[in-house]
Specification:
The chain contains eleven helices and ten strands. By secondary structure, it is an alpha+beta fold.
Amino acid sequence: MSSGYWSLFGIYDGHSGWETSTWLADNLIPAVVGALGDLYSRIADATKPSENTTPQPISSDVEKTLKETFSRLDDDIVNGRLEAVFSTRSKHAAVNLLAPAYAGSCALLSFYDSHSCLLHTALTGDSRAVLGRQIYDASDKPTGKYSVHILTADQTGYNPSERERIESEHPDEQPVRNGRVLGMGVSRAFGDARFKWSREVQDRLKREYLGRTPLAAVKTPPYLTAEPEVTSIAVRPGDFLVLASDGLWECLTSEEVVGLVGLWKEARSKRSRGEEPNGGAPLASPEIPVERQEEDQTVRYRQWGAEKRFVSVDENAATHLLRNALGGADTDLTAALL
């Protein structure tokens, strides 16, 4: 197919139970790989043998494939098992079959094709993908600072485009209030079938299969969708990618996350030379090597009554981010939170 390779990375942030996120962890990437394999094969089959090139799909074809795969899997979760449920009298079987439908999950998936050097990111929910990139000066020397590329938009009722989309689909209702969709924090998700099934289906499940009581506010479902928003970006040498659920972004801004990874990279480089970066001393927030533009709207440190004081002591980049999200140099706060 090509001389390159594929890499896929996923984050599945479940809610109202573990079943949907666990199902996605087992099934989403295999399904996406299969669908992308079909796409690449169709393009290869359409390429003339005389053409001495490796065929590559355009980004819009990859986007369509990701959207169709996400939507198909959610339909399997929400509707695909109803026939099996309604064909049995077993309440036990019905409860097990429908567990991934009653629970819910966000999904963030990134697909990197090394041949094209394109990174495609698909988001359903309020997780976030951020790419950090080294900044170079006019003479092509690294400045030590990083630019921040936010690859996704949080899909909640606070997102104006999401609110407009949902309200246009339900013009005679007010489904979005105080940034929530009928009480849900996200505007797109897998599962959460109580916001997608018809009232007739929910009434029957309640009556015959120990189903949950239909929500009174659910009048014209569906209110949620699993179709993702997809973006693409050309990756350069030295770029790094951070995928995280909303918990990280409630503690740290996108700029802080990129800057903290930049600090970690610098510290690792110094340790490789036998130096001890900063002696493990705390770092003031403005010292992070990134052009800071985003207003700090994170909520957790304010709730904790604490100031952000960053530190770089970890060998693992993810642990480094988690430490600074949960107290940083304030080891007492970290211990209390843990």
